[in-house]
Write a structure and sequence with these properties.
By secondary structure, this protein is an alpha+beta fold. It folds into two domains: about 5-160, 2-Layer Sandwich (Ribosomal Protein S5, domain 2); about 165-260, 2-Layer Sandwich (Alpha-Beta Plaits). Helix content is about 30%, strand content about 25%. It has nine helices and ten strands. Helix 1 (about 70-80) packs parallel to helix 2. The longest helix has 16 residues, at about 100-115.
C-alpha cells in the first residue's frame, strides 16, 4: 500500500468551563465533546524523496514550524526513532479558527494514517501519548468517541452521543484560542466565578466582547432559540430535533454568515484504523 485516504471529523463543545490554570500554563477544563458529520479529507502518500510535504486547498502557504500536521509527523518520527517522509494533502471543509477542532483532527488523522500506511504497529495509547504534545484536543480525536473531558482535555470518559441535530453558524471571523485564554487569565476571580455560574461556555462573554458586530445578532438569535458557542469560537450552534423548531431562526441569520446542518456521530471514522 502506497497511499491512504483519511476522513477527519469536527467536534462541538456542547459546554465548556475553564477551571484552574496549572503551573505549566495549561488550563484544566470541564467539557462535553460531540463528534459531528463535518469532515476534512486527507490523503497520505509514500514518497521516494527525503521530504515531508503538507498542502491544503485553501491557498495560503504552510509554515512548517507552526503547522500542527508537520509537528505531528515530526513527533511521531522522534517517537519511533526514524524520520517519516510522505506527502499529505488536506481538503479543508472545517473552518479555520472556528472552535471545531479542525487542526487537532488533522493532526490525529495524520498520526493514525501514517501509523497504518507505514505499518508502524503503534497502539492508540502510543498515539495519544504523542498527541498530548501537540494540543489539548488531539487525544480526543485519537480516542474517537464522544466524551466528557476533564484535566487539560486529556482525561476522557466515553459519553453518550447527543440525540439532537445541529445548525452551525459561521460568522466569518477568526477567533484566537491563545488570546481568549490570556483574556480569561486577566479576569478577576469574581468575574471568572460569575461566568462559570451563568454561562455554558466560559469564553462566550469574551468572544462577544471581542466581536461587537456579532454581539447584536447573537442576542437577537438567542432570544429565538438557545444559541451556543463551540470552544473558543467563532462557530455558534443551535441544537434541535426537527427543523420546525428553527424556522424563525433561519430567517434571522445575517446574510454575511454561512450556516450548515450537521448530525451527531456515534464515533469517529478514524477508529477504523485503530486496534
Amino acid at each position: 500500500m502506497n497511499k491512504i485516504s483519511i476522513t477527519c471529523p469536527a467536534k462541538l463543545n456542547l459546554n465548556l468551563s475553564v477551571l484552574k490554570k496549572k503551573i505549566n500554563g495549561m488550563h484544566e477544563i470541564d467539557s462535553q465533546f460531540q463528534l459531528i458529520n463535518l469532515f476534512d479529507e486527507m490523503k497520505i502518500e509514500k514518497t521516494d524523496s527525503k521530504l515531508l510535504n503538507v498542502s491544503t486547498n485553501i491557498g495560503s502557504s504552510i509554515n512548517a514550524e507552526k503547522n500542527i500536521v508537520y509537528k505531528a509527523i515530526n513527533e511521531l518520527s522522534n517517537y519511533i526513532g526514524r524520520q517519516i517522509f510522505c506527502n499529505i494533502t488536506i481538503k479543508k471543509n472545517i473552518p479555520l479558527g472556528g472552535g471545531l477542532g479542525g487542526g487537532s483532527s488533522n493532526a490525529a488523522g495524520a498520526l493514525i494514517g501514517v501509523n497504518e500506511l507505514f505499518e508502524l504497529g503503534l497502539s492508540s495509547k502510543d498515539l495519544i501519548k504523542i498527541g498530548k504534545k501537540l494540543g489539548a484536543d488531539v487525544p480526543f480525536f485519537i480516542f474517537g468517541k464522544n466524551a466528557h473531558a476533564s484535566g487539560t482535555g486529556d482525561v476522557l470518559l466515553e459519553a453518550k452521543s447527543s440525540s439532537k441535530k445541529f445548525l452551525l453558524l459561521f460568522p466569518q471571523v477568526h477567533s484566537s484560542t491563545k488570546e481568549l485564554f490570556h483574556q480569561w487569565d486577566r479576569l478577576s476571580k469574581d468575574s471568572q466565578n460569575r461566568i462559570l455560574k451563568n454561562e455554558e461556555n466560559s469564553f462566550l462573554p469574551l468572544f462577544l466582547q471581542n466581536n461587537q458586530d456579532i454581539k447584536e445578532s447573537f442576542n437577537q438569535l438567542n432570544d429565538l432559540c438557545s444559541l451556543r458557542l463551540s470552544g473558543t469560537g467563532s462557530t455558534m450552534f443551535f441544537m434541535y430535533e426537527n427543523k420546525g423548531e428553527i424556522e424563525k431562526t433561519l430567517k434571522k441569520i445575517p446574510s454575511k454568515w454561512r450556516h450548515s446542518f450537521c448530525e451527531p456521530l456515534q464515533c469517529s471514522p478514524l477508529l477504523t484504523y485503530l486496534t
